[in-house]
Fold:
Amino acid sequence: MRILQCVPNFSEGRSPSFVRELTTVLAQFPVKLLDVSMNKDHNRADVTFFGAPDAVEAAAMALAGRALELIDMRTHKGSHPRMGAVDVVPFVPLRGMTMAEAVEIARHFGRTFAEKHQIPVFFYEEACTTEARRSLADIRRGEYEGMRRKLQDPAWIVDAGPQTLNEKSGVTAVGARMPLIAVNVNLHTQDVEIAKKIADAVRHAGGGLRFVRAIGLRVEDKGITQVSMNLMNYHKTPIHRAVELVKIEAARYGVSVKGCDLVGMIPIEALEEVVSYYLQIPGFTSKQIIEYYIPPD
Amino acid sequence: MRILQCVPNFSEGRSPSFVRELTTVLAQFPVKLLDVSMNKDHNRADVTFFGAPDAVEAAAMALAGRALELIDMRTHKGSHPRMGAVDVVPFVPLRGMTMAEAVEIARHFGRTFAEKHQIPVFFYEEACTTEARRSLADIRRGEYEGMRRKLQDPAWIVDAGPQTLNEKSGVTAVGARMPLIAVNVNLHTQDVEIAKKIADAVRHAGGGLRFVRAIGLRVEDKGITQVSMNLMNYHKTPIHRAVELVKIEAARYGVSVKGCDLVGMIPIEALEEVVSYYLQIPGFTSKQIIEYYIPPD
Structure:
């Protein structure tokens, strides 16, 4: 079975009716909705769903179309970086598909979406057309307010759609990527500077692990100091290696790890490495898990 | 969905045609065959299958009936303890079922089997009628050759069937239990006495963990010294605790762990504890695993 996941991010996180609209649209397609997250501060909503590739692409197109009707970027405020109503549309190959196939679908989606709605589109991550556009942060730099100017820069010729800003809907990034794993490591310290130093040591940007992005921060409402990591390739930089490296750097400050949070979903393959490492079981595979053979209810 | 597993053990492990006979029988039922293991030294075969409770009970009855036709205990030799042609029939509740329901099915199966084939049956583990029969080892002590005498002992009134030995087929134990986890911990030593001392320290019988059974042994053909453990209740004695305790005791001899083998299948729940412990993620659940929502191929 070929299974593709899509996690579009929309610039509307305050209106409950918006989420109802999205789920109503999704219900018309043979896809499975996994999660809807809204954040009021960010003023942003993420939808996670999966299914057969064709159904997922069609559902994503319908969702994006509805979101464009409902969102006006000219009045959007939010603390999360954003550049468009349909801000980012990543496709994630989950089973029976190669990354190359996901890239093809992402680009097909991006071109169709751009033409249909006259929106500038950039391809990012594995779908990027040049290394300078691999990172979403680079594409989005300047945010919605800076996009008019950015689109006049010869370095930012769009991958699809018009070269001029869509005032109402902004700019959209469409990409393909591996499942991303989000791990927060909570520290036994109140000192956010320590968390920041650890984050810098373990992340790629600071000379750390190649597929780790990390920031150190205080989560004020929970009274927690943490290193918040995104693992971009859990095969090449597995969870245990990132977490153990955080512990090793924390030890330099006499700080120990209080606990970790795993945010959202992870693929079972990412846990194979965890079990294999800590229990020293070489080649442990999820085929040894009974549930591998039992269909979920 | 209610899913029951059955893992009958038969006293025939040398004839390939025997396994073919069993799989032919199983194919007539709506159950899923997970594994067939034969061992020539043990002269014993295990079959693992699961499905809806009624189908599993019916399939187990048909399998056992065919095995009785093919096996004659009067000529059986093997290194593994055994007392009957259909030696043990454990039922394991996998999903949507309580242990009480599995016990009920085990006893129903045991009574029907005993009457139909005139074979003495004892109920063991969770299906036991008295604590003295909880342990299979206690029931089987004396093996086939000692059963005639054992059945004359007032302490061993059968739970079902005749009180006299069935010469051809021996005695059968029928039970219900949790999924059993088999872990071998391989040691960096050639000294089997060290493995035996560690096994004794970690197992319940030696004052160790309540739900651990363990032996220390040499696996000559692999040149390995190991502590071989069965975890009888992975909720109350999780994998990591047993493995870490082996490491702690091994350290007393300056011996480290080379690696572990996980034998056969494990439930995903047993891995939740492993991930939760080593990555310090309190309350980690398999509902965070994407594959939880994707039917297996």
Notes: The first strand of chain A starts at residue 3 and ends at 6.
